[in-house]
Design a protein that fits this description.
Largest sheet: 8 strands, mixed
CATH class of the largest domain: Alpha Beta
Radius of gyration: 19 Å
Number of domains: 2
Low-confidence stretches: 238-244
CATH topology of the largest domain: TIM Barrel
Structural class: alpha/beta
Helix content: 25-40%
Number of helices: 10
CATH superfamily of the largest domain: Aldolase class I
Number of strands: 12
Distance between the termini: 29 Å
CATH architecture of the largest domain: Alpha-Beta Barrel
Length: about 300
């Protein structure tokens, strides 16, 4: 499957061309809310999981098609900073095109100088900051055993000082896990130090890795926004009517597959040859429209026609 996916409509970045530089579910965390199911390879080892040559060759082809692309975004199936060549990729992409480069990261490796230097070439970096206390951090992110929240926060602070691009923070709230008023007050203090251009508040919308990961209500998120103040905003859903990249034939292919038997996200992706991150967009819309349903069986989430 291609390492480049999209462009897909994004709630934050318009039409985003995704760049996937690590194998499926290779991550430093095993977040309870992850839309791509549980982490199967939790690691801190940085390596050239996908070569820069492969990424750049695929990207040249996609750019030659002349599609609308607002951002080239490193995201995908795991933690992108685990690819040791991400800095080289970013620099060479910026030599190829004037389209801005964004990196969606959990921020866990920014304590490493090499990672900070690699991401400093990007136009926009969006690290997640789901917790600042160790208790909440362990519960929501389930990190690699050697990761400490204090070290991660120190890395974020240093990166903020050297980074000349835009820094947005995303906070994913899970009901009863990281939404206590005391935790939010601690977040407010850290946010004041990091001075991000945007603070984006999110909650569990898509089916999560764990069934107990439940969303906050709109009213609860609004209360947190008021508590954080400043430039905090609730991320709005990207409506399908605005998504010219939303393809009816892909939707119908998903529905046809689900009418046959219950399938997992990975099953759909492999059967249709569509990247998991792109499949998730269709599942979100179809579940919202009541056309499909999901259930947990044997620790895995299955989707079926409603």
């Amino acid at each position: 499957m291609s390492q480049i996916f999209g462009p897909v409509p994004s709630r934050r970045l318009g039409f985003s061309l995704g760049v996937d530089v690590v194998p499926l579910k290779t991550c430093t965390y095993n977040c309870i809310y992850c839309q791509l199911e549980r982490t199967t390879k939790k690691t801190l080892r940085r390596a050239e999981y996908v070569t820069a040559e492969v990424i750049l060759e695929e990207l040249r082809h996609v750019l030659s098609l002349g599609q609308q692309i607002d951002y080239i975004t490193f995201s995908g199936s795991g933690e992108p900073t685990l690819n040791a060549k991400i800095g080289e990729m970013i620099r060479k992409i910026k030599e190829m095109t004037c389209i801005p480069v964004a990196v969606l990261t959990n921020g866990s490796l920014l304590y490493e100088r090499e990672v900070r230097e690699a991401l400093s070439a990007a136009d926009l970096v969006i690290p997640s900051l789901d917790a600042v206390s160790d208790e909440a951090f362990q519960r929501v992110n389930r990190p690699h055993g050697r990761l400490k929240i204090g070290t991660i926060l120190k890395g974020l602070r240093i990166f903020r000082e050297i980074f000349s691009g835009q820094l947005w923070l995303e906070i994913m709230f899970v009901k009863g896990i990281n939404d206590a008023s005391e935790e939010i007050e601690r977040m407010r203090g850290v946010i004041g130090e990091l001075r991000p251009e945007k603070i984006q508040l999110n909650t569990v919308i898509r089916p999560p890795a764990e069934v107990f990961a439940q969303p906050l209500t709109e009213e609860e998120l609004s209360g947190i926004r008021e508590q954080l103040g400043g430039n905090a905003e609730i991320i709005a859903s990207f409506k399908r009517k605005d998504q010219s990249a939303y393809k009816a034939d892909v939707e119908e292919a998903v529905l046809t597959l689900l009418r046959r038997r219950p399938v997992t996200l990975s099953d759909i992706s492999e059967a249709l040859g569509v990247h998991r991150n792109e499949v998730v967009k269709y599942l979100e819309v179809l579940e919202h429209d009541g056309k499909i349903a999901s259930k947990i069986f044997g620790g895995k989430r299955y989707y079926q026609s409603a």
